[in-house]
Amino acid sequence: MGMALIGPGFIDLDALSDIDTGVLGLDHQPGWKKGRVWPRDYVEEGPVEMLTPEELAFQKRYAFAHLIRNGITTALPIASLFYRAWNETPEEFASAAESAADLGLRVYLGPAFRAGHSVIEADGTLTVEIDAARGRAGLDAAIAFCAAHDNTHGGLVRAMLAPDRVEYWTADLLKRTAGVARDLGVPVRLHCCQSTFEVETIRRSFGTGSAEWRHDIGFLSERALLPHGTHTDREGLRIIADSGATVVHCPLVMARHGAALNHFGDLRRAGLRLGMGTDTWPPDMILNMQIGLMLGRVMGGELDSPSSADLYDVATLGGADARGRPDLGRLQAGAAADIVVIDLAAHHLGQVRDPIAGLVASANGRDVRTVFIAGRRVMSEGTIPGFDFAEAHARAGAQFERLVAQYPRRTWRHPAVQSIFPPSYEVTRT
Question: Is 340 inside a domain boundary?
Fold first, then answer.
């Protein structure tokens, strides 16, 4: 393979699995004014599916190919529910299982489900509504999916439970979800400790912090995967660490929202289990490692912690350990043959003396050349058999524009698209 790093595949515990509308928020805030929260009149009208089954199937396959392209060999997908009628469906995830198996990606799959959502009232007030019946129905559908699809396609497809954000749940339903995960032997991922709104909602609803509440209801365990951990205090992180749960570190998407884990070095030394996630475009684990290193040093005020090896370990061993998979995240006898070859000879990398430090200093996901998953060569020299990146990119762009065109319908006061997402500079024509 020449001048290359040959290492274990990356494990993405919060893997982008759609055409990411989250990038629209980079310069367009606050989100509740930009179609990221449903207005009251849209809720009363009846939310609709803004993507067809064919579009949902395409975006999973498109995203899965890009995960492989970036050296991710095990993925736990995440997609936005903002443009869904309510939950993801078992049918679309049955299709996703087929796409993953065809491409050769190792996945943990389960339709996301929720018991509540945010609403913007006519006067601009932000509220949370809970629909416990819908939450129970979503959990039941997820249980049925797990029964039908866990450990299929030669073990390449496993199941998980994916309840939506912590502020959209009742204690009884979250407790039941954790119990089901234990009984089925599957992971359960819950986005939490990720926003000021969440912190205020949980305290208003339950009189305590998010980590404390989840501990009190018995949700936390070694099966729990918790993106993002940026909005809690040291006591909350200690509670999570003591439970054996894993915080899923997604530094890129959180840095875009002005937040960072506080802080990587101390938390690892305190025994907190950490894994990595991409969560947004680009699904570039190397970029997330780079940002994680820089933010870790800035937040900790330390010149040498975290190290490049620390981030590499979390992107490989951290995810494997979070899943209780000693056969993943490492190259050794008895491990699955998930192998990634990263080119270190390219001139844009500059001079490379230590391969791990060189990776974290200068490389990116486009430097991944060849990927093996479970011993199968799924990508060679940037090419995935049966997948045309140029054709898929064009189709994804058209699908993205169709979705953006629907934003006024579900945006507060229904402004035109040009008002929701104005250009960075005024466009003039002569």
Answer: yes
